[in-house]
Amino acid sequence: MLPGIGVFGTGNVVKVIVPFLREKGFKVEAIWGRTLNAVEEVAKELEIPFHTNKIDDVLLRKDVDLIFIICSPNLHAQIAVKALGIGKHVLCDKPAGLCQGEALKMVRASQYYPSLISIINHSLRFLPAFGQMRRAIVDGYLGQEGEITVCDVRVQMGSLLHDAYDWLCDDTMGGGVLTLVGSHVIDLVSHLTSQRAVRVHGVIRTFTKTTDYVNGIRHISSPDFCAFQMEMSGGALVTATLNNHLPASFSQEVLICGQAGHLMVRGGDLYGRKSGSTKEDVIYLDVEDLQRGGAINSTAANAIPRPYMKGLFKMIGALREAFLPVEDKRGWVKEPVALAATFEDGLYVQAVIDALKKSNANREWVKVNVITEEPDPDPLLSAAVRRSTISM
Amino acid sequence: MLPGIGVFGTGNVVKVIVPFLREKGFKVEAIWGRTLNAVEEVAKELEIPFHTNKIDDVLLRKDVDLIFIICSPNLHAQIAVKALGIGKHVLCDKPAGLCQGEALKMVRASQYYPSLISIINHSLRFLPAFGQMRRAIVDGYLGQEGEITVCDVRVQMGSLLHDAYDWLCDDTMGGGVLTLVGSHVIDLVSHLTSQRAVRVHGVIRTFTKTTDYVNGIRHISSPDFCAFQMEMSGGALVTATLNNHLPASFSQEVLICGQAGHLMVRGGDLYGRKSGSTKEDVIYLDVEDLQRGGAINSTAANAIPRPYMKGLFKMIGALREAFLPVEDKRGWVKEPVALAATFEDGLYVQAVIDALKKSNANREWVKVNVITEEPDPDPLLSAAVRRSTISM
């Protein structure tokens, strides 16, 4: 039987996901929002039977077995760790948390409850074009493995901000193009190339500090532009340009070059060209209609770019499969979501984001360091304790 | 009367330019090549009456008044300085030279003979789409001046190498994507934004070190990939990705964003969008046919990408106008080529290239330093001399 779902968050994405979850047969039992006013409105609009502004009131419900965390990143770790601790499956929006320390707590929780499903919403992995791209790379379209030379990613889109001040304006709460789009790019290219970032360099900027809606004493600290380079473990070089200065448009191109050819995903379509070939191969064209069944409110559908939404829908489809086999006593298997980003992947992405922020601050290349122990909250105190222990 | 032309170089570009020069009414009197064999062949094919492998034999000819330097960059400065010194006009291919020292010598020569025309072949300035883009920026399409936020340039193309080992394979002779394409990009964005690079960061790579034609004891040292960022004097941030790993194709996109809108040149066409507008403006479509008059050999036309060739043709048209006004006693005026890149511009571009190379070598941001004095060839010796002078 499909698990009952508890949703954390009241953003536009929620308005897209809830109808789609129902279409797939899931029951959405409860929703949490930061304020009662906001969550009441969304619960009414989406006809969700229970709403609250208390986290535990959703987590402890008996009819909720799967948690969708789609709120501001500063709450991700807290909710995810608690949910796993009381035996609930978790799908957590990207990025994993605000820093590696938070992401590591999530990893620990997922390792402690290995039978529970715990995945990060890096939905592009599920977009068919990228599935095909990965298969082509594994099959040697670009040459032998390790022969990948350059990955170039470009995302051009409008502002990520809403018409009011909220966490999206705030760098310290996880807003901005690096955490919200860059995290996807880091996960995607690492997944596609089977290589991990070793050393990175980034330029992160906030050009638009005020808008018609955010001005006066408040200003925007979340970045609206980011360009970064990553040296990968297998020798590939990744360059990415993420730009929020093209209002009302969205274009995303992912190019991967190897000695034997190149592959390019534009939007949801995959093109390729083998070296020496006189023409471009059209490997996959995305003609499937997202709006089938009419379940998706078209204005809400504009909330997230098409490739991300489509990947998310495919991922929810995989999640459904994970819960369908009835012969399994536990009621679920993990295989259908094996493709999904794990909390470990989330920790790695967070490590790269931390390195990019440090690179930007210090204008230097920074080695990616995935932590395995929680950072010491007060290194000076600890050192003093060590000294006093030694002197005793 | 139009001046007689002496051409330096025997590459494919020469085979495109010479017929076009004739179509415009110029007489090509002499050609120089590195080897007699090579130059003899090209002279015969292009029906140029005089050929030689001695530089002076072209420069000293009485029927030659305008020099086209389209050979390897290591010879640019030497030929340009000599030509100006004996009163000949010079069009010199980019980059100005191999280093700032060479470019500075060219600047000095052009300053010493200010009435002579001395321009660098940064032909994209003459491409109509970029002329329109510059006008739109000046007219405030992107907002007030200084409100430019991001310029993003992407050039994707095939290999720059020929089917044999030559200077294009050699970094120290000026080969590679940074000097040959990057120099254009640096000049173009500086020209379009009326800002200059202050601080730069670059990643320069040679992924393809051998080919079917270059292997064994020889290998390729010229870069085939380059990604760089430039902080501009007016606050704009430039990002550029130049990629030689897409065989048999060419795509070039120049995006400039401001607070009030953005402008994008794709190929030879200009698009724009004002903030708040619901649709993209098609500002300029390049429908003019390059092949008019049949003057251009189509295989040769593949030698340089269309926007560069078209810009070059427009520049030659301007050069023609410069020599047309008969009422001027000297026989030429500089106004029609006022748009062209000067040798000073060439020095600036060279300073940026030098800074990018240093940035790549040291993995750091580097301040752009345009030299005004020739670098000391032996700083240790000079210091010793100064010390001995002081002690005397």
From TrEMBL, chains A, B:
Xref: Gene3D superfamilies: Dihydrodipicolinate Reductase, domain 2, NAD(P)-binding Rossmann-like Domain
Report domain Gfo/Idh/MocA-like oxidoreductase N-terminal positions. 5-109
UniProt keyword annotation of Metal-binding present: no
**What SUPFAM superfamilies does its record include?**
Glyceraldehyde-3-phosphate dehydrogenase-like, C-terminal domain, NAD(P)-binding Rossmann-fold domains
User: Which residues does the UniProt record annotate as the domain GFO/IDH/MocA-like oxidoreductase?
Assistant: 132-263
Q: Does the keyword Oxidoreductase apply?
A: yes
Q: Which GO terms describe its molecular function?
A: nucleotide binding; oxidoreductase activity
Q: Which residues form the signal peptide?
A: none
Q: Which UniProt keywords apply?
A: Oxidoreductase
Which family is annotated? Belongs to the Gfo/Idh/MocA family.
Please give the PANTHER family that the UniProt record associates with this protein. Answer: BCDNA.GH03377
Protein's UniProt name: Glucose-fructose oxidoreductase domain-containing protein 1
Starting at the broadest rank, the lineage of the source organism is: Eukaryota, Metazoa, Ecdysozoa, Arthropoda, Hexapoda
Q: Gene behind this chain?
A: gfod1
